[in-house]
Structures are given as C-alpha cells and as structure tokens.
Specification:
This protein is an all-alpha fold and 197 residues long. It has one domain: Four Helix Bundle (Hemerythrin (Met), subunit A) (Up-down Bundle), CATH 1.20.120. Helices cover 67% and strands 0% of the residues. The protein has helices at 3-32, 44-65, 79-103, 131-147, 150-178, 180-188.
Length: 197
C-alpha cells in the first residue's frame, strides 16, 4: 500500500481531532470570559506532562513531514493493521467531538475548574469521568498504527499514564467544587472506561 495514503489519512484524522479541540477550548474561554492558566498545575507531574506533550505532538508532525525521519522507530505492520488504525482514528475524532460538545464550557487545560463550572453527566460522561484521556490515547495509538511507528503509539500510552497520575488531583478539585454530588457520580461511572456491572 502506498505510504502517502496513510500519511494523508493520518494528517486528516490528527488535524480533525486538533481542530475540534482548539475550537471547543477557545469557545469555552470566550463563553465564560475566563482563560484558565496552565500554571495552576505547577507540580512536577504537570511539568513532565508538558515536556512529554511537546514530544508527543512533534512526533506525528515529524512523521507527516518526512516519514524517513522516523524510520528508526518504524515497525513492519500489515496493511490491515494500518487500516485498523484509520478506523480507530476516525472513531477517536468522533469521540473527541462527542465529549467536547458534551462538556461545553467546562473544559479547561488543567485540573482546575471554571468559576461557573457545572457537573456534566451526559454524553460520554454518563459512563466515564475522564473520556478525554481515553479518547486522546486512542487517537495516538491509532496514529502509531497508521504510521507503523511504535514510538508514536508508546508516547500516547505514556501520556495516558502521566495524565492518570494527575487524575486524583483533578477529582479532588471536583469533589471540592461539587461535594456529595460528585462522590455519588463517581459510584456510577468508571474513571477511564465504563464500569462493568
């Protein structure tokens, strides 16, 4: 299969997910009149997430510019697994749209909440408390499959682990803001995947 087909599809999927995220984040800032500073999370974990995030985002763009620059981490995958990555990528972009349209103005770049933040329990939040982390990881794993590149997929998984370490702080902020309402919500939802009952 022609490498350029996978590069074009990967670019469309990545730009689609990024475009949705940028649009909804800017809309949340505009609608609330409040821009949440990234410096709220000043912990070592957050600094690691920022550095890792830079590498995470640069790697797919390096592949898109010139796949040969990422040959050191290329793996020989059959075309069917790369097409599986395309399918997972499309589902991830749809998931990104669903979760951002569900949370609306409540989205922030940090574990802090907005002043007028409302607890969202609809859309994917009906089953999962942090679907963004799950869907974003799926997007990078999908990109790694499309690019046949273990490094990009691994970075997505490592980013998920770093975000999962930050999640207790985020949930503590939500408990502080919503109290028993959030504690009750936690009983009926999974952190990253739906609860199996």
């Amino acid at each position: 299969m022609n490498e350029n087909i996978f590069r074009i599809l990967a670019a469309l999927i990545l730009c689609g997910g990024m475009g949705i995220s940028i649009y909804f984040r800017a809309k949340a800032d505009r609608n609330t009149g409040e821009k949440v500073s990234r410096s709220v999370d000043g912990s070592a974990t957050m600094r690691l997430i920022k550095i890792g995030g830079l590498i995470l985002w640069l790697s797919p763009f390096i592949y898109l510019l010139n796949p040969a620059w990422m040959n050191w981490s290329r793996i020989g995958l059959p075309d069917w697994s790369r097409w599986l990555g395309v399918g997972l990528g499309i589902l991830s972009v749809l998931g990104i749209y669903w979760l951002f349209s569900s949370i609306g103005s409540g989205i922030t770049p940090t574990s802090a909440t907005r002043k007028e933040h409302k607890l969202v329990t609809s859309g994917p939040y009906r089953w999962v408390r942090h679907p963004l982390y799950t869907v974003a990881t799926s997007l990078f794993v999908a990109f790694g499959l499309m690019a046949a590149n273990w490094f990009i997929a691994l970075l997505g998984i490592l980013a998920f682990i770093a975000m999962a370490k930050r999640t207790p702080k985020e949930e503590a902020n939500l408990i502080e803001k919503f109290g028993d309402e959030y504690r009750e919500y936690m009983k009926h939802t999974g952190r990253f995947l739906p609860l199996i009952k």
